[in-house]
């Protein structure tokens, strides 16, 4: 499936990679070892795998329930998957882990930017885009502060210009820069 790799990420140690190909999630070593198909889910599509900064968990979107939901799985393949969201219809893009591996931010096809606390499962809508559609939504990204408190991202404004925003995960306040 090498020619059908759609997205992927490198482990924090740099010794492994996680790839999405043909709707499956694979881990593979940088040099020697076994390539593992972690999902083995014919008829189900898994998308946008990302390694947690602590190296323990993979986050991705799976349509096993019929719609794309945020899903976690142990990176070593030792356990099953755990679905974190139940958002229903829609497409979601790359999950962005916080440096402490406790939170994830993502955007969907309706330009809703969400934050989920992995431990408490609290899902928060932090903002909405204005005029971005697919494929540019696939390029949406966030930057986390090193203490996992602040999220920086860019989104469109009503005047069709863009601005950088900061979101404080502690106070829940959003600031346009």
Report on this model:
- With 177 residues, the chain is an all-beta fold.
- Helix content is 0%, strand content 45%.
- The protein contains no helices and 16 strands.
- The chain has strands at residues 5-10, 16-21, 24-29, 36-37, 46-51, 57-62, 69-74, 82-83, 96-97, 103-107, 112-117, 123-128, 142-144, 150-156, 162-168, 174-176.
- The chain has a 4-stranded antiparallel sheet, with no helix packed on it.
- A hairpin with a 5-residue loop joins strand 14 (150-156) and strand 15 (162-168).
- It is globular, with a radius of gyration of 16 Å.
- The protein starts with a strand and ends with a strand.
Key words describing this protein structure:
177 residues; mainly beta; 4-stranded antiparallel β-sheet; globular
């Amino acid at each position: 499936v090498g020619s059908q790799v759609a997205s992927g990420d490198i482990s924090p140690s740099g010794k492994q990679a996680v790839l999405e190909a043909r709707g499956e999630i694979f881990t593979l070593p940088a040099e020697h070892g076994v390539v593992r198909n972690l999902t083995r889910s014919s008829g189900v599509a898994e998308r946008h795998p990302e390694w947690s900064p602590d190296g323990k968990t993979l986050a991705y979107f799976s349509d096993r329930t019929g719609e794309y939901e945020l899903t976690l799985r142990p990176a070593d393949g030792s356990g099953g998957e755990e679905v974190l969201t139940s958002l229903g219809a829609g497409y979601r893009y790359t999950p962005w882990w916080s440096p402490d591996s406790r939170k994830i931010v993502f955007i969907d096809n309706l330009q809703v930017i969400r934050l989920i606390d992995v431990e408490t499962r609290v899902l928060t809508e932090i903002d909405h885009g204005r005029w971005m559609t697919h494929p540019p939504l696939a390029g949406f990204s966030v930057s986390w502060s090193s203490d996992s408190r602040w999220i920086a991202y860019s989104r469109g404004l009503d005047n069709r210009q863009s601005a950088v925003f900061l979101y404080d995960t502690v106070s829940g306040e959003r600031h346009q820069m």
